[in-house]
Each structure stands twice: as structure tokens, then as C-alpha cells.
Amino acid sequence: MAARPSRRARGASGLRKRRRKRPGSRSVLGEPSPAGGGGPFPGPYVSPAFRSIARESQGRGRGRGCACAPGSRCGGRAGGRAPPGGGGPCRCRHGRRGAVGAAGRAAGGLVPPAAGRLPASRRVLPVARGDGSSPCRTAVFPLMTSGVTYWVIKSLQQLDICSSCINSYTLLVSPRLLFTMFSFILDYSVYRLAPSWEADPWKALVLLAGSYVTLVFYTRTFTNTLEGLLFALLMVLVSSRKSAGSLAEPTSSPLIGIITTAGFFNRPTFLAFALMPLLYWAGLIVDSQKSIKTAINHFLKLVLCACFTAIVFVTADTLYFTSLELGNLYNIKKSSLFDVIGQLNEKIIVTPFNFLSYNLNPHNLALHGSHPRITHFTVNGIMLFGILHILAIGAGFKMLKKYIHQLVRVKSYYHGPSGLLVHSEGNPMLLLFYFVPLAFLSLFSHQEPRFLIPLIVPLVLFSTSQNRAVKWKHVIVIFNVLGALLFGCLHQGGLIPCLFHLEHLVHSPESPHHPRHYTLLFAHTYMPPRSLLNIKKRDTHIEVIDMAGSEEETLCQTVEQRANNFTCNDCQVFVIIPGTVRATITKCSVSFKNETLIFPHLSMEDPPQMPFLFSGNWRSQLGLYILQLGRDQQSL
Q1: Tens-digit pLDDT profile for residues 571-597
Q2: Among 371, 378, 379, which Cα is nearest to 447's?
Q3: Could you tell me what percentage of the chain is helix, strand and coil, using 3-state DSSP and rounding each to the nearest 5?
């Protein structure tokens, strides 16, 4: 166990979330963000999903008019339009939410409200869906994770302890190191849970430590990662037992309420994971309490703590996402009761409701890619857990067949909920902990593998409860090595090194009388985390355009518009594309004077063709190109 931190640290770079390509637009779930994932079930926040680098807020709380910073897409003018190729008109929130849009919109992508007091390039920005007026991601967890690490880095630099602490590398690694430390919550949970579920603690820990899901996903700043940690803690709380195996006195009702509510605000899909643990806990409460009054007391503690936690999250998000300041509360008190209710109704932000409202709309899910309902069951589970998922399916069918056979023969094998589900052969309750969330997540048409990473804890416990995984150990080792290589190194692996390279480029010394303007155009890559470019509030000369999976015509039109922009004498335009679509740019009527190849980079949306991989051109197929646009209009 002592070697695990270094293994995770080596694995903590290069992963990019999988998404279905949507030509001509940008899926909001694809951004590798400072604190979590995006997506219909986003996780940065990861984003969990974040959108783009906010420029400094100019006039927070100005009320009417545009709240974008000068140099942003609309230039600080209400109703302003984007420059050519900038991805359409600026959609800043004006009027009563003018202050909410203080961060503006980056070219080609939505930008959520500004994140408080951090410098522009290091603000923590939870994802907002639709037009940005209904935030779907709580600000609490990003501020507690990435926000804290960025504050520490900034403080070290201000105290002259580390004069060059703020750079793209530290902005990437510091939140990941924090999440790597958090990942040991899984180890603690598995070690505590194993005796309760008749599993060997050390074998379970070895299986957990060797999984590439732990090494890769749980060292990334995804909301799915936090969801998995909270799910593991919830399982520990509901599975408390004495050493002899008898049920312990349930004393964790307040903590269960707090964790359930926190998980719900982190990702509303947490309710799917919490359903069976909560039902199991309720069964233990009913079985262990002789007095109805005592049982009701436990449930009241849970509800009260859950409500208090919800109030804390709603208050924090409302203060963060709106122009409501603490100083305005005095003015609200002077108003009538109906005015107060009306003002609060307009300003209050409940992110889980916005999340559910957005994701229950099939049209919105279709924008991010639709999948068959059995994708989690037949593809994603195997992709994440390999043979362990297959063994769980086989055991599930055997147990289902056994119980159906018992019912048909009218045999009474029932000895109470906890006795049957926990002590019968195979621990069917663990299978319910695994398959019930999987079934609920399968009801939605958009299905990504990372949505299932919280299920690793019940699956590991089930696989080691009767040494099921021992005879497959060689298969498990090979599978996890290949998974770590694919998702930890190859998949979108060139994007981070590319941003490191561009950061040095755009911050290179230049003449103060003739500053350069840089346009960075990304196509057929995941949304680049703009924070890694280390853009400060004064850096208005850097523009990032995300073309997503744009079609050839749209991509060429945008590139040609940039090439024909002769109003800027010292503009540098860089096009970043995978090697598999390099031929697309050659069809555009532009020329490139420099190109840089970042290796390796694998795009699953634009995979390389097998014949090219066995040719002398294989490195270009597994690389990411940085092409500098030339001024002459000669076709390549």
C-alpha cells in the first residue's frame, strides 16, 4: 500500500472524458475542467465540468447593461456581436442578471458566472446549461477543492515564497494532488466495509488499488469522483456492525442526511446510488429498534440535517451566482412580505432543480449524444471493470434464477430483510448496490462510462467476498494495464502538453509598443481547459475558439476568415487539430508557415485507420498538430 501514491501520481495526467462528437457545435460535457466534468450528468463539476477562462469582472452588480469585460466577445457592449468565426452573437445575461454574466462568454463556448475573488484565469467556474441563466452545478465543491488549491498557490506567490508558482503545470497538478489524497477515502471505506460483507479486507484493497479506474479517474477533478467518494462513505455509515457480526446501534442518522444532501447537490444522480443504502439503513433501523418513537427519532434527525445542509448549499449558490450581496439583505428587510418573497424567488438558485429540468428534456440530452439504453450494461461496465462486471452479471442471473425457483416451489426461505440479503450466499444486497444505480442511469439516453465509476466499491466487495476474482487475476492485471495506458496516456493525451506549449508561446516576451494578438482555434478535440493557458485579467490579447467537431465547410470558413483579417498586423493564429483530420485543413484555401506535432494523442471520435497505423505515417495519426496560419493565400 505504501507505493500507491506514486503510482497514482504517475497516472494523474492525460485523461480526457469520453463524449459523442457533435459536428458543428460544442458539447458542454467534454471539458477537462479544474474541478470536475460536465455533461448532462456532468460531472469538472470537472466540469464537477467548467466552461472557460473568465476575464476580470467589470462592474459586478451593475444592473442593466453588459457585464462583459473589455476585450471579450462583445467588447463590454450590451447586445454586442462576436467577431467573425467567434461562434455567434454574445449571449450575455443583461438586465437583472447583468452581474451574473460578469465573466462574459469566451469565443465558441458558454461561460458561467464569475467565480468570486480569484484572478480571472484561476477562477472556479461551475457549468451553466442552456443560455447560462440556470446554473446546474453547485459552486461549493469547486471552491472547496480547486478553489482552495489555487488560493494556496496565489498566497505562496504573494508572500514571495514561490515567485513563479502560478503556471500551467501547477494549475493542473495541484487540484489533482488534492483529489489523489481524497481517493484514499476509498481505501478506508473498503477496509471498513469488507468484514461487514464477508470479504477479505486486504484482497479487496489489492483489487481496488490495481484498478485503472482508481488510478486514473479518482485522481481527476470530476464530479463523478466526488460522487464515488460520498457513495463509499454512505455505504460505511449504513453498514456499521459490531465485530461479532451483530448489528450496531444506528447512531449516524445526521451524517447520513448530510452526505446524501451534499451528494445530491454535487450530482443529482447521487440519489440513484443512495437509494439502496438508504433502504438498507431503514431496514436496520426498523429491525434494531423496539420502540417506534426511537425509530421516528432517527428519521427526523436525518431529515432535519438534510434540510439544513440543503439551505447551506442554496444560500452559497445564490450568493455566488447572482448579484445578491449581503449588504442588500438590509434593503430586503424593509420591503413587504410579498416583495421579499418575490425578490427571493427571482434570485434564489437551486442547482439540482436546474440540472433535472435540463436533463429530463430529451432534446437537451440529444445535443450531447444519444446512446442505446443498454450501453451502460453491455459496454460501459465492461470498459471500466472488465471481467468483474461480467462476473457480477453471471452471479446476478444465477441468484435471480435461484429465488424465482424458490418462489415457484413455494418454499419459505425468508428470515427477515437483513438476514436474507446479507447472510445468504453471494451477498445479493451488494449486487443491488451495483445494479440498481446502473439501471436508473440507463433510463437516460446519454450514457458515458465515467457515470459508473462510483460503483467500484460494491463491485470490489462482491468480487472478493467469495474469492471470485482470484482465478481471473492475470486477466484483471492485463486489463487494467491496457485501460491505464488507453485512458491515462493515449486518449486525448496531447491536449494538456499542447496547452503547456501554447502557454509559453502566448506569454513570451514581446515589444510593449507592438503587442501581439493570439487566436487559438481548437477543432475535433475536447474543450480545452483555458485555465492552463494562465490567462490573467490583463491578457485581453488572447482569444480561444472551440470549434468542437465542426464539419469541413464550417472549419474552413472560420480559418479563412481569420486568414483574411488584415486589420490586425501582428495577429498570430494557431489551429489545433488531431492528425487524423489533418487532411481536412489542406483543403482550405490557406497556408501554414509552422507546424508542431504533439505525440501521443488518440481521438476516439476521429480514430486512426488501421492501414495508416502500419505505415510510415503512423506518428502523425497518433498526434496533435499545432498549425500556425500564414498570411499568403496559397493552397497547401
Answers
A1: 888 999 998 888 888 788 788 888 889
A2: 371
A3: 50, 5, 40
DSSP letter assigned to residue 581 = G
Sign (positive or negative) of CA dihedral 205, 207, 208, 211: positive
Nearest to 131 by CA among 357, 302, 289, 301: 357
Q: What average pLDDT does range 26-45 have in this prediction?
A: 34
Nearest to 519 by CA among 494, 500, 537, 546: 546
Give the whole-angstrom CA distance, residue 465 versus residue 204: 9
Whether residue 369 is predicted with pLDDT greater than 60 in this model: the reply is yes
Per-residue pLDDT averaged across 614-634, rounded?
Answer: 78
| Whether residue 600 has a cis bond before it, omega within 30° of 0 | yes
Nearest Cα to Cα of residue 186 among 209, 220, 217, 210: 209
Average pLDDT, rounded, for the chain:
75
Model pLDDT, residue 590:
83
Residue 307: C-alpha distances to residues 138, 255, 271 (Å)? 16, 12, 15
Cell of 366: 440529444
CA distance 49 to 357: 18
Residue 466: phi, psi to the nearest 5? -135, 30
Specify the DSSP element, H or E, that contains 624. Answer: strand 624-629
Those residues whose C-beta lies under 8 Å from the C-beta of residue 107, and which sit 6 or more positions away, are 73, 82, 83, 85, 86, 87, 543, 544, 545, 546
Beta strands at 624-629 and 571-578: parallel, antiparallel or unpaired = antiparallel
Q: What is the DSSP letter of 220?
A: S
Greater confidence (105 vs 295) lies with 295
> Across-strand partners of 542?
518
Average pLDDT of 368-380? Answer: 90
